[in-house]
Design brief:
By secondary structure, this protein is α/β, with parallel strands linked by helices. Helix content is 46%, strand content 10%. It is built from 16 helices and 12 strands. It has helices spanning 36-40, 46-51, 72-89, 98-101, 108-128, 156-175, 198-218, 243-252, 265-270, 275-285, 311-323, 345-372, 374-382, 389-394, 399-408, 420-430, and strands at residues 30-31, 34-35, 42-45, 93-97, 132-137, 180-183, 189-190, 224-227, 237-238, 259-264, 288-292, 332-334. The strands form 3 sheets. Strands 3-4-5-6-8-10-11-12 form an 8-stranded parallel barrel, surrounded by 4 helices. A two-stranded antiparallel ribbon has the order 1-2. Strands 7-9 form a two-stranded antiparallel ribbon. Helix 3 packs parallel to helix 5 (108-128). The radius of gyration is 24 Å and the shape is globular. The chain binds D-xylose (XLS) and nickel (II) ion (2 copies).
Length: 431
C-alpha cells in the first residue's frame, strides 16, 4: 500500500453528497434493462493520471509524484498507486500505452522486458482487483525516433521498430484480457509535401494495419481493433483526420469489417465536427467502437483533454451511442488530465468522480429521450413522404422517368419547417 491517497475511502453513490462523490452515478441502477456500470463502462487513462507531469506549451512539470523517474522501482510504485485509485473510484476499466507504464530501456529488448515485467505485475493485481483492461495501445509518437511517423516513416527501420512494438503491446493486451486494441497515429501524417511521398506513406499504413489485424487473429485476440481519428496536432496533416477519412482508408485496404473507431470528443471538435456527428456517422458506416470522453477548451483551440463537465453535450453523445445499440467491446475512456495547478491527490479523484457523474446524468437524459421516443417520432415524421410507393420507386428508377413524373403529376414541393427550436426545447427538457 502506498500512502498517496491516504485516508480516502472508496466512493459510493450518495444523492445528497457534495464535492468528491457520486451523486448521480449509481453503478447498480438499471436503465433500459442494464446496470449503469455496464452501459457506461468507464475507464481511467493511465497516461494522463499517472504519467503526465503537468506541462503545457510554455512550461514543464508542475506535479511532483513520488513515482516520477525512469526506474523499474518507480514504475512499480506507479502501478500500486494506479490500482489504489481504481479501488477508490470503482470504475470497471483502465487503458494504457507501453510508454506510460515502463521506463525506456537501452534497446528494444530491454524496453520490452521492462514492459513485460509491469504487465506481469498488472496481471497479478488484476487477480484481486475488479478492474479490467478496456484497451491497450502503443505510444508511437513521443520518442524522437517517431518524429517523422511510425508506420508511415520514410525510414524502414522505424517501420520495423513500430511493428515490433505493436506486436508486443497487442500480445500484452491479449494476455490481460483487454477488450480492444487502439491505434492512434499521432505522427502518421506530414508537415510538408516538399519532403513527403503521400501515396507511399498511405500504402505503408495500409499494410501495417493489415499486419496488425492478421497478428490479432493469429494469437486469438477476439477484441476489437480500433483507430482513433484526430485531424491535426501533432502533425499538420493527419491521415486519420476524422471518421469519414478513416472509413475511406479502411475501404481502400479491405479492412472495413475488421477495424472500428475510437472517437474522442476533443478530436471531433478539432476536426470541425460535433461529437454527435462523428458518433452518428460511425454508427451509420458500421464502424462504431468506443469513445474517449474528453473535450477541449472552446477558446484555446488545442487538445486540452479536459474531463467532461457539460451534461447537455454528454447527453447528445450518449443518445447516439444508445442508437448504435450501446457499447459492445467499447466503453467510456477518460483520456483526460487535470489542470496543471491541480496538484493534490484528491484532485485526481474529484476529476474522475465529477466526470463519471456528468456522464451518468447525460446518459440518463439520453436513455429517457430515447425511451420516450419524441425525437425519433419527429424525425420519422420528417421523412414520412418516403414511405409512399412512388417515392420508394424513385430510388430504383432513372432521371428520365422521374422527370416525366414531375411534369405529368405537376409535382411542386411545399417547404416545411425543420422545427429545430422545438426539438432543442425538447432536449433541454430532459437535460
Ligand atoms: C491523443 C490521443 C491519445 C490516444 C491514445 O490526442 O487522444 O491519447 O487516445 O494514444
Ligand atoms: Ni486526444
Ligand atoms: Ni484519445
Amino acid at each position: 500500500m502506498s500512502d498517496f491517497f491516504k485516508g480516502m475511502e472508496p466512493l459510493r453513490h450518495d444523492p445528497e453528497a457534495k464535492g468528491v462523490a457520486f451523486r448521480s452515478y449509481d453503478p447498480d441502477e438499471v436503465l433500459m434493462g442494464k446496470r449503469m456500470e455496464d452501459h457506461l463502462r468507464f475507464a481511467v487513462a493511465y497516461w494522463h493520471s499517472f504519467a503526465w507531469p503537468g506541462g503545457d506549451p510554455f512550461g514543464g512539470q508542475t506535479f511532483e509524484r513520488p513515482w516520477f523517474g525512469d526506474t523499474m522501482e518507480a514504475a512499480r510504485l506507479k502501478a500500486d498507486v494506479a490500482f489504489e485509485m481504481f479501488e477508490i473510484l470503482g470504475q470497471p476499466y483502465f487503458c494504457f500505452h507501453d510508454a506510460d507504464i515502463r521506463p525506456e530501456g537501452a534497446d528494444f529488448a530491454e524496453s520490452r522486458r521492462n514492459f513485460e515485467e509491469i504487465i506481469d505485475l498488472f496481471e497479478q493485481k488484476m487477480e484481486t482487483s475488479r478492474t479490467r483492461l478496456l484497451w491497450g495501445t502503443a505510444n508511437l509518437f513521443s520518442h524522437r525516433r517517431f518524429m517523422a511517423g511510425a508506420a508511415t516513416n520514410p525510414d524502414p527501420d522505424v517501420f520495423a521498430w513500430s511493428a515490433a512494438t505493436v506486436k508486443t503491446c497487442l500480445e500484452a493486451t491479449h494476455r490481460l484480457g483487454g477488450e480492444n486494441y487502439v491505434l492512434w497515429g499521432g505522427r502518421e501524417g506530414y508537415e510538408t509535401l516538399l519532403n513527403t511521398d503521400m501515396g507511399r506513406e498511405r500504402e505503408q499504413a495500409g499494410r501495417f494495419l493489415n499486419m496488425v489485424v492478421e497478428h490479432a487473429r493469429k494469437i486469438g485476440f477476439t477484441g476489437s481493433i480500433l483507430i482513433e481519428p484526430k485531424p491535426q496536432e501533432p502533425t499538420k496533416h493527419q491521415y486519420d483526420y476524422d471518421v469519414a477519412t478513416i472509413y475511406g482508408f479502411l475501404k481502400d485496404f479491405g479492412l472495413e469489417d475488421e477495424v472500428k473507431v475510437n472517437i474522442e470528443q476533443g478530436h471531433a471538435i478539432l476536426a470541425g465536427h460535433s461529437f454527435e456527428h462523428e458518433l452518428a456517422l460511425a454508427r451509420e458506416l458500421g464502424i462504431f467502437g468506443s469513445i474517449d470522453m474528453n473535450r477541449n477548451d472552446y477558446q484555446s483551440g488545442w487538445d486540452t483533454d479536459q474531463f467532461p463537465n457539460n451534461v447537455p453535450e454528454v447527453a447528445l453523445a450518449y443518445y447516439e451511442v444508445l442508437k448504435a445499440g450501446g457499447f459492445d467491446t467499447g466503453g467510456t475512456n477518460f483520456d483526460a488530465r487535470l489542470r496543471r495547478q491541480s496538484l493534490n491527490p484528491e484532485d485526481l479523484i474529484a476529476a474522475h468522480a465529477g466526470a463519471m457523474d456528468v456522464c451518468a446524468r447525460g446518459f440518463k437524459a439520453a436513455a429517457a429521450m430515447l425511451e420516450d421516443g419524441v425525437l425519433e417520432e419527429m424525425r420519422h415524421a420528417r421523412y414520412a413522404g418516403w414511405e409512399a410507393p412512388e417515392a420508394k420507386a424513385m430510388l430504383t428508377s432513372d432521371l428520365d422517368s422521374i422527370a416525366q413524373r414531375v411534369e405529368a403529376e405537376g409535382i411542386n414541393p411545399v417547404p416545411r419547417s425543420g422545427r429545430q427550436e422545438i426539438l432543442e426545447n425538447i432536449v433541454n427538457h430532459y437535460v
